[in-house]
UniProtKB/TrEMBL annotation, chain A:
Domain of life from the UniProt record: Bacteria
One Pfam family matching this protein: LrgB
Localization of this protein: Cell membrane
Keywords, alphabetical: Cell membrane, Membrane, Transmembrane, Transmembrane helix
Residue stretches spanning the membrane: 6-22, 29-47, 88-111, 131-164, 204-224
Membrane topology label: Multi-pass membrane protein
Lineage: Bacteria, Bacillati, Bacillota, Bacilli, Bacillales
Entry keyword Oxidoreductase: no
Name of the protein in question: LrgB family protein
Any single Gene Ontology cellular-component annotation: plasma membrane
From TrEMBL, chain B:
One GO CC annotation: plasma membrane
Taxonomic placement: Bacteria, Bacillati, Bacillota, Bacilli, Bacillales
Family annotation (InterPro entries): LrgA/CidA (IPR005538)
Protein name, UniProt field: CidA/LrgA family holin-like protein
Coiled-coil features, chain-numbered ranges: none
Protein source organism: Psychrobacillus soli
Compartmental location: Cell membrane
Chief location of this protein within or outside the cell: membrane
Transmembrane stretches, start-end: 7-30, 36-55, 62-81, 87-108
UniProt superkingdom: Bacteria
Record's bilayer topology term: Multi-pass membrane protein
Length: 225, 128
């Protein structure tokens, strides 16, 4: 009974938050963010544990795997644009992955974080579903990773346009790729205002970054296990 | 009605790929997300025309449209990490922000350099 109400509750709250976000369009009202906060408040006020929440919510969680597999579809339909820009896309996505990894490891070491925290931080620039799966595979905490991924995404969505101006990043390809490979889906959704080409470069590099990250993150993880 | 049945069947196909990916990762004992193996397998099948795009198109579109919903259960898991609200947690959040900004700047500049060089070469070829 609890399980079913957790499923229905989560879906209902998510739909409600999506509607709210549609009314006031700002990255700060992102449905994942508001739905998560609301659910945590509700669980706390009814003194329910995360484990009892997951008895139902695990069925929603189970859809992550097939959802990640689904990303093959947009990648396949955009194969022409990938072929046209193969070299710059691949180089930039790898550069983004490495610079994200190296910089966050330096910060983590400065903050004296434990290894399981570092492992949870490594996939932060990758789209949430894949990042959580990588985190689980290398021994991090997927829930913690999801939070870091959301922060990385919000950073790009909120500050990206300002950074583009400040650092004179003006080409549609470079805007799309840098946003897609540093701030995944949240950042990419912000690219709609720069036109179709920037947007599709963004979503392509987001997916490629997820695939490349799945290979690179476990290598970096070896140093922290 | 027919449309919903089709979407459900297509999701089953995608689920099979995801299971197959996890299974492969398990028997090989490698630290790699199984769903990415599933993604690569599906991409390979689409590319080699083993699977026509039409039999996964609607299911994939449906799942991707609801992507954010699927990770809500995991993000709620942060409830078990109240230490994020400490000073160290806040510094950690700042680190993620700065690391992300550095990544955008570096990647954007390098990509722009590569693009300009490509355009330069094409110009030279046109003139030559």
């Amino acid at each position: 009974m609890i399980a079913v109400s957790m499923i229905i509750g989560t879906v209902f709250i998510f739909i409600l938050m999506t509607k709210l976000n549609a009314r006031f369009s700002t990255p700060l009202l992102l449905p994942v963010l508001t739905a998560t906060i609301l659910i945590i408040i509700l669980l706390k006020s009814f003194s329910l544990s995360y484990d009892s929440y997951m008895t139902g919510a695990k069925w929603i969680d189970a859809m992550l795997g097939p959802a990640v597999v689904s990303m093959a579809y947009p990648l396949y339909t955009q194969r022409t644009i990938i072929k046209q820009n193969l070299f710059s896309i691949l180089t930039s996505v790898v550069v983004a992955m490495l610079s994200g990894l190296v910089s966050i490891i330096i910060f983590a070491k400065l903050l004296n974080l434990s290894n399981d925290y570092i492992l949870s931080l490594l996939p932060k620039s990758i789209t949430t579903p894949v990042a959580m799966q990588i985190s689980g595979a290398i021994g991090g905490f997927p829930s913690l990773t999801a939070v870091f991924v959301i922060i990385a995404g919000l950073t790009g969505a909120l500050l990206g346009p300002f950074i583009f101006k400040l650092c004179r990043i003006e080409k549609s390809v470079s805007r799309g790729i840098s946003m897609g490979s540093a701030s995944h889906g949240f950042g990419v959704s912000k690219l709609t205002e720069y036109g179709e080409k920037t947007l599709s470069m963004g979503s392509v590099s987001m997916t490629l970054s997820a695939i490349i990250g799945a290979f690179i993150c476990p290598i970096f993880a070896l140093f922290f296990q | 009605m027919k449309k919903y049945v089709r979407i459900v069947l297509q999701i089953c196909i995608l689920y099979l790929f995801s299971l197959l990916g996890s299974f492969i990762v398990q028997i090989l004992h490698i630290k790699f997300p199984g769903s990415i193996v599933g993604l690569l397998l599906l991409l390979g099948c689409l590319h080699l025309k083993i699977i026509p795009v039409n039999i996964i198109k609607d299911g994939a579109g449906f799942l991707l449209g609801l992507l954010a919903l699927f990770f809500v259960p995991s993000t709620v898991g942060v409830i078990n990490y109240p230490e994020l609200l400490s000073l160290n947690g806040i510094l950690l959040v700042f680190s993620v922000i700065i690391s992300t900004l550095l990544t955008i700047i570096l990647t954007g500049r390098i990509c722009q350099y590569l693009e300009n060089r490509k355009l330069g070469e094409e110009d030279a070829n046109d003139r030559g």
